[in-house]
Design a protein that fits this description.
- It contains 2 helices and no strands.
- With about 70 residues, the protein is mostly helical.
- The two termini are about 25 Å apart.
């Protein structure tokens, strides 16, 4: 395994951890958000996180249809 492949594998895992963390924090804001506007923005952010997750899975599996 070359350095580039190792680096990509580590970057994928770090990306999955960060996307999962942002998903959890955004879900928390949807549930606890003090105002309706906070909840709406958080729901919009969930869409962005989902698109990022799909792109990351596409890169990880080398399935270019996702990207």
């Amino acid at each position: 395994m070359s350095f580039a492949q190792q680096f990509l594998a580590v970057a994928e895992y770090v990306g999955l951890i960060l996307i999962s963390l942002s998903f959890l924090l955004t879900t928390w804001r949807v549930i606890v958000g003090p105002t309706l506007l906070d909840r709406i923005v958080a729901l919009d952010m969930l869409v962005v996180v989902a698109v990022g997750f799909i792109a990351l899975i596409g890169i990880r599996t080398s399935f270019t249809l996702y990207v």
